[in-house]
Design brief:
Layout: E1 3-4, H1 5-12, H2 16-24, E2 32-33, E3 39-41, H3 43-57, H4 62-70, H5 76-108, H6 116-143, H7 145-156, H8 160-182, H9 188-202, H10 211-223, H11 225-235, H12 239-250
Antiparallel strand pairs: 1-3, 2-3
Helix pairs in contact: 3-4, 5-6, 6-7, 8-9, 9-12, 10-11, 10-12
Amino acid sequence: MLYSIKQMAEMSGVSTRTLRYYDEIHLLEPATVNEAGYRYYSTREVDRLQQILFYRELNFKLSEIQQILSSESQSIQSVLHSHYEALIEKRNHIDSLIRAVEQTIAYHKGEKEMSNEEKFAAFKKKRLEENENSFGEEIRQKYGEETVDEANKSWLGMSEEKYKEMQEVEGQLIERLKQFNQQKNQQKEDAKQIVMLHKKWLQYTWSTYSSEAHKGLADMYIADERFTQYYDEKAGVGAAQLLRDSILAYA
């Protein structure tokens, strides 16, 4: 069975304008186009649109979706399995937030006590999950499962006071790094202060510190573009390189 572009739009909730755009960028091309220029879609395109919407719901960029769906190694089973895992993770986070809201309501009604740590638990867990998804594999390969698990445990068990301190130190680090990046005549003492701030920031979650591990992490800031992007977006292009070079010199 073939569906017109209007029928496809009504069935999926996607506008005809969006369907035409997906055709233009070769993300979702119709099964056939008649002599009058009308687009028609088969069940195959319906399934592909469903996959696109899955990924859009998970905040993937269109270019990323196109790359995934164009990969011959991606079977429909593996695609759906990745959807499933991501949705389960999303649901778990929403459940954590719901529990936090329920506890907060009960706390303000005087029905239960709520520690400061509990007030921030869901948010810290979300950030930890984001870090694991972005950098977990690389960090675990470099430092080992035990070291990373210990750091995660420290993060989740951190008190409200320590959490705020850590955020403040990171803010100071980014500001100093930004200023350093903008200086024409960069001074050695400024670089040393940046390294000390970075070391202080790490020690909130590292159970033990070593200059070797510090320098190893700094190398990753350049080796992995995701780390580079994090610092370059916050402190200007070249900031990650400056941070890495400073750590290698003075850690």
